[in-house]
Fold:
Amino acid sequence: MGKLWRRAKQDEVAAHGLQQVDLDTLRLEKPAVIFLTGFFTYDDTPQHIRAAFKGINELTNATEQGRQADTYVWSHAGLKEIFNLAAYEAFPAKRASENGYDLSRGVIMPLVAKDFKMDADGNVTGTPLPPDEARRNLRNVTFFAYSAGTITAQECFNASVRMMKQVGYSDKDARDVLHEVALVSVGVMSRPGAEKNRFTTLYLEATNDRIVSMKNRMWTPLRAVFDWFAKKLKIKTLSPHSAIITGPVKKKDRETRMQDGKPVQKEIKGMLPKWFPFKSNHELPRYVTEDEDVSPFARIVQFSLGNAVARDRLLPPLDLLPPPAGTPQAEADAYRAKIATAVIKPN
Structure:
């Protein structure tokens, strides 16, 4: 079973500076960004969980809006969870593992149902909140998902719909309310084509990400072939509540980041050994970098998370993309031009 973590406060005694969140008592009452990590961030690897906190805090602090959010990190139980991933891939419309239910009962259900409870046998009770109140509550929830975490996010959606119906929501009302949750999904291992009207979602897939391409060859082989030869950033609306952003990343081993107002070079550690004949291009920095020379996705994640945290209404997915207030004018103009060029107009 996976776990949800927060950084321990100064007056708390906690191993490694991490505090496991009690999902039975959690209630998000202010904006929060929850990092659903990749497959190798395990419950018993505190060094990886701390690194995940460092990464998500850097992303949210990149904009004034993002600094308003609390941050949490989800970790995985271990290698056995690979079976959950395979099961979801086969049955994306309904599949939800124990992780999906745990994440939902802690993060989603207390915001949509009064007196929500789940007993040891998985039976749930509660009373649906008025839809407008539930929608306002869910605007506090922003998921940032990477790799295997993209499947955890989708399992959370499936589990939420099921439990909301059990406490009295209709299927339509449950899905309508859940649109209010924002999800930025990178290195996508879930199936965007089968997930079009769920959370308000931006999917980011590098067309030369070998891990993502292997998944796409199985489920969307024609798209995988065309994507592999793509040369430019493309942004395509999949539904009123989802959009996919694709483009090739570069194989560079270093990126330029601003630190204390100065540019510094940082290594991009590969997932595969250096002696391997090719790169995976699945590394998280290739999706969240600020460096345009490394990735066409530069700044998209930072800006989207900032806009998601600041939202006060249901936004179309493309409305998560603009540069937030406070972005230097020259940077904002260049970024807007990049996005405008990449958007594919609907027929």
